[in-house]
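Q: I'm building a small set of examples for a reading group on sequence design. Run inverse folding on the following structure and report the sequence directly after it, with nothing in between.
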């Protein structure tokens, strides 16, 4: 795989003719501000692993979508499969404090999008981001994580295993921040603009009214990208942001086809998608079970489930434990919720 020298004089190719004179001067001025210490760190990071890549603004490997930003990253540090950056991704974003139902929705949509031939891009944050990466990485590593730290750090630290899985399965982790750079509050809006710009569209799964997720969605809309939102319970504050976006013109999404019909030229045929998503396991066939059907997508109390099935609570708990182990339901405060798509 090709990598790029970090000689400060060769950080960018001499050919910047695709830029306006004003932009070229700005790029050159920015290059001049790069400290030698940062260059040394980057050179050290680059040679540590053959999966480490440094992509400059003038490189052919640099994503074209990012060049449209008012202040595009001058350098991208990429860990993993470099070709992921040239394949169309769809962004999935949402709350860090997502419900079990929201996590299930994000993971399910990500898996189905990956089966359709699209990559999934997100920010590797807790909650919806992580669920999206987990859903897509299982399908040929079809995910891109954009991080708000240097490429040599993992944040949050508990996502070390996810970070490793993304790289090992063929995905990519990218950053515009130099090695050694810790997470800082101002880094994450910059990360979000990369997600919004690289995504051919943005799907929002759970968000409060005042959240960074809505800012990302606005960035995508301002760039002329489609914004999709998953509706939910009107009494749940975690879905109020999605409802707001729908009121503002975002497309309401309840199934994969609501997204794919906007990108039919980029995806596999509907027959292939149906075949891939239609391969149900024996566990998933339990979705027609009466007891499972009595569990709602919102929190359902144990005694309500027992009453609906005319069964002792002990029998219900035993059955629910089996369903939980099979990924059909999730235990939450106050009872259980059924995972969407199960």
């Amino acid at each position: 795989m090709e990598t790029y020298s970090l000689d400060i004089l060769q950080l960018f190719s001499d050919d910047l003719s695709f830029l306006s004179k004003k932009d070229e001067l700005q790029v050159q001025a920015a290059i001049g501000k790069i400290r030698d210490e940062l260059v040394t760190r980057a050179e050290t990071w680059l040679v540590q692993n053959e999966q480490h890549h440094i992509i400059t603004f003038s490189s052919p490997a640099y994503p074209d979508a990012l060049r449209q930003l008012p202040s595009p990253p001058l350098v991208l540090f990429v860990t993993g499969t470099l070709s992921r950056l040239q394949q169309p991704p769809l962004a999935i974003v949402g709350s860090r404090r997502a419900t079990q139902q929201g996590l299930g929705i994000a993971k399910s949509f990500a898996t189905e999008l990956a089966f359709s031939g699209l990559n999934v891009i997100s920010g590797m944050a807790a909650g919806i981001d992580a669920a999206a990466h987990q859903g897509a990485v299982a399908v040929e590593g079809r995910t891109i994580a954009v991080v708000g730290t240097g490429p040599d750090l993992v944040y949050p630290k508990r996502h070390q295993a996810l970070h490793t899985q993304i790289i090992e399965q063929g995905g990519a982790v990218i950053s515009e921040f130099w090695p050694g750079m810790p997470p800082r509050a101002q880094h994450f809006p910059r990360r979000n603009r990369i997600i919004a710009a690289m995504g051919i569209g943005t799907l929002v799964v759970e968000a409060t009214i005042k959240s960074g997720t809505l800012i990302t969605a606005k960035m995508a809309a301002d760039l002329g990208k489609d914004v999709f939102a998953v509706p939910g319970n009107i009494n749940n504050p975690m879905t109020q942001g999605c409802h707001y976006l729908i009121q503002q013109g975002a497309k309401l999404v309840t199934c994969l086809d609501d997204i794919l019909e906007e990108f039919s030229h980029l995806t596999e045929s509907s027959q292939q998608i149906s075949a891939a998503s239609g391969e149900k396991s024996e566990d998933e066939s339990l979705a027609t079970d009466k007891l499972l059907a009595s569990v709602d997508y919102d929190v359902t109390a144990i005694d309500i489930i027992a009453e609906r099935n005319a069964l002792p609570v002990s029998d219900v708990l035993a059955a629910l434990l089996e369903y939980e182990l099979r990924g059909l339901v999730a235990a939450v405060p106050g009872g259980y919720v059924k995972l969407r798509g199960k």
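The radius of gyration is 22 Å.
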